[in-house]
User: Which sequence fits this backbone?
């Protein structure tokens, strides 16, 4: 019985493999085209037209578009063929005939303009979910607009095809079209009078990195970590081979011990895990996977350019996004081999993003705008069409129109078209005022709602940012504010909730910006007279925080003698522009100068003690000022810590991180540099987790969160200015 089953199984396997082998052979025995070449497609006018597919190796294939010239190719050993048709003027419908062992006909082909539409949900957002959907769908009788949607798939390696079909625009089909792409296409079709084809490769919630081909990350210094992750997964890479050799050796050792254990009736331990670094990228959140599955299958298809609407999933990373845009645009242009084709993209709209700092989104807008340094790119402003409570603004009509304006002017040579709202050009200081000059004003500047201009803020040496009175003078806006004697810097629309009313004469909105110099007064010299008696031991721009902090001034090897008193001075300018400072001086707690700065493991510092004869000066409400005696304690150490009041600091909590935390170890870890007024359980200043650089914790006064001492706030990056100085007074 067992023998019979075995022979049946062998026959079944042999039959199944034969069937699979036959089907695989047949897959290339007949001429086949990828999905991008299908009925109702649009081909790019006035450009050489690559056409490719599969057939039997060595098979001759001929391709003809309409009554044009027949172009031949011979299928290579992999079963792939490719031809290049001569440029064709706009028109159609045409039929394309592909002949080999069989004949494939593609019908109802139009020749016009082809645009790739990509990004996340705001590009994927469909006409049926946009503003006035019923009206828009009913009016969508544009048979010369065609659309193909690429399925949502991720892949670890570049794919050659996808499942999809071209659709002709009509009220029955348009509801599923990309809205931003469709409304752009509608404008272009009306203006150019030619067919428009849209290739929609978009997926909601995705980051930019999965859309970038591997080659796009090459040569970009700030993205070399991603490039290394990609390279190590290549079997030819030395590190891949090294890790795999070790893994195979570990498996051999395990296999031997496993057999011995099994033979002696003992439990077999789990086998060594496959090296994580060598596992392929497979999910739609990992680098290259969406390019591989959703873009690579049609790379080489002749097209005019690309539009991009993405960023919500990357909006917290600031200037790094500019580098990723360079990777995306540069990577696509490299693999398409079609030169610097136009690449137009959309500013993500104002949105509240919960409790997020109001400056995170504007900082991302700066990064989006900075990507304009990439040649042949353009950006659409959405400052006036947002819904602050909906990350998907329904008004995709204006998005599409503005993308079309960029294309008409930048790609199709319509010089008379105004394609941009006002953009910052220059800033000039005048007595008590700032004069901002704008470019792209068309016939002039105006308020879109007739109200005074809003969302202009200015800052002076003695103030934070305050709302400015803004007056239009030609192409300029003149700014002033009561209480700001001489403004030195301006920011416009620099808030996640900003929806400014400044537009140009054709109603296009101004793009947010900041400009000028925020001049920082030296509050140590101005407010702390006794500092003149001290020497500077350390001076550090805290934007340089790291596991091994680099001081701008380090006199620890130069100052000699015995320390009489030590002082720390921290000054911060936060997102409002307000300057805060705190000065603490006390009797020396050590004569080892290297232990008085950032308490890294290398410094050897570890203090949790009272400091004596202390003095505090600060402009932060709630902090003591003047002589405070022995009511201060320091918490300086390089390692981790917990909230328990293990050393019995008066008024400290056992549940909250505050003035009485418990050191958890001497080795390098989270790290604390804090001074507290334990009499009132108030944090004077804190610098924690310096290893995290711009995600470190920094603050003066108590944090408003659950941790009074700023632990876990990760807020260092929100300060425009942050500086630490350590001073010593030596005994004479």
Assistant:
């Amino acid at each position: 019985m067992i023998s019979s089953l075995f022979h049946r199984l062998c026959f079944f396997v042999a039959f199944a493999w034969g069937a699979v082998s036959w089907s695989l052979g047949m897959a290339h025995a007949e001429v086949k085209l990828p999905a991008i070449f299908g009925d109702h497609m649009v081909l790019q006018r006035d450009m050489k037209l690559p056409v490719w597919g599969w057939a039997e190796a060595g098979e001759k294939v001929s391709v003809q578009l309409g009554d044009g010239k027949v172009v031949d190719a011979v299928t290579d050993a992999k079963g792939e063929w490719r031809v290049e048709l001569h440029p064709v003027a706009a028109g159609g419908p045409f039929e394309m005939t592909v002949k080999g062992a069989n004949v494939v006909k593609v019908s109802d082909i139009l020749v016009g303009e082809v645009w790739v539409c990509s990004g996340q949900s705001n590009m994927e957002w469909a006409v049926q979910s946009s503003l006035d959907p019923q009206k828009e769908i009913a009016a969508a009788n544009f048979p010369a607009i065609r659309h193909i949607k690429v399925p949502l798939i991720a892949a670890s390696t570049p794919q050659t095809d996808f499942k999809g079909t071209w659709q002709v625009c009509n009220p029955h089909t348009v509801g599923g079209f990309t809205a931003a792409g469709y409304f752009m296409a509608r404008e272009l079709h009306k203006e150019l009078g030619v067919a428009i084809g849209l290739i929609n490769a978009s997926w909601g919630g995705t980051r930019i990195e999965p859309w970038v081909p591997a080659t796009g990350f090459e040569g970009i210094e700030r993205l070399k970590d991603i490039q290394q992750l990609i390279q190590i997964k290549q079997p030819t890479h030395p590190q891949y081979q090294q890790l795999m050799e070790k893994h195979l050796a570990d498996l051999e050792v395990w296999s031997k011990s496993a057999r011995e254990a099994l033979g002696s009736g003992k439990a077999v331990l789990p086998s060594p895990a496959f090296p994580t670094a060598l596992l392929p990228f497979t999910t739609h959140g990992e680098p290259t996977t969406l390019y591989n599955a959703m873009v690579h299958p049609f790379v080489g298809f002749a097209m005019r350019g690309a539009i991009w609407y993405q960023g919500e999933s990357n909006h917290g990373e600031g200037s790094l996004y500019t580098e990723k845009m360079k990777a995306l645009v540069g990577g696509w242009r490299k693999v398409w081999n079609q030169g610097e084709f136009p690449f137009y993209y959309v500013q993500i709209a104002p949105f509240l993003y919960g409790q997020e700092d109001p400056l995170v989104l504007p900082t991302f807008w700066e990064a989006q705008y900075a990507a304009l340094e990439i040649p042949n790119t353009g950006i659409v402003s959405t400052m006036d069409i947002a819904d602050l409570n909906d990350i998907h603004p329904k008004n995709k009509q204006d998005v599409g129109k503005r993308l079309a304006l960029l294309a008409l002017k930048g790609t199709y040579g319509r010089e008379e078209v105004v394609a941009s709202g006002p953009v910052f050009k220059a800033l000039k200081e005048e007595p008590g005022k700032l004069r901002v000059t704008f470019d792209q004003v068309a016939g002039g500047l105006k308020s879109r709602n007739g109200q005074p201009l809003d969302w202009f803020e200015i800052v002076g040496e003695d103030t934070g940012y305050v709302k400015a009175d803004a007056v239009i003078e030609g192409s300029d806006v003149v700014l002033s504010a009561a209480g700001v004697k001489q403004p030195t810097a301006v920011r416009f629309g620099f808030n996640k909730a900003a929806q400014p009313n400044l537009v140009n004469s054709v109603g296009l909105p101004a793009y947010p910006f900041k400009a000028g110099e925020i001049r920082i007064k030296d509050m140590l010299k101005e407010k702390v007279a006794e500092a003149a008696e001290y020497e500077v031991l350390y001076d550090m721009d805290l934007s340089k925080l790291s596991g091994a902090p680099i001081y701008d001034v380090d006199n620890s090897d130069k100052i000699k003698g015995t320390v009489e008193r030590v002082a720390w001075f921290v000054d911060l300018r936060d997102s409002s522009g307000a300057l805060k400072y705190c000065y603490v001086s006390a009797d020396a707690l050590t004569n080892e100068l290297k232990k008085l700065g950032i308490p890294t493991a290398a410094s050897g510092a570890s203090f949790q003690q009272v400091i004596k004869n202390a003095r505090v000066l600060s402009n932060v409400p709630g902090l003591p000022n003047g002589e405070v005696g022995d009511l201060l304690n320091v918490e300086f150490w390089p390692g981790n810590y917990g909230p328990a009041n293990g050393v019995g600091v008066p008024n400290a909590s056992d549940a909250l991180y505050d003035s009485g935390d418990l050191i958890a170890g001497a080795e390098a870890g989270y790290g604390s540099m804090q001074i507290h007024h334990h009499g009132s359980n108030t944090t004077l200043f804190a610098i924690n987790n310096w290893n995290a650089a711009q995600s470190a914790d920094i603050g003066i006064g108590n944090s408003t969160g659950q941790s009074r001492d700023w632990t876990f706030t990760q807020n260092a990056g929100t300060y425009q200015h942050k500086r630490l100085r350590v001073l010593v007074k030596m005994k004479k």
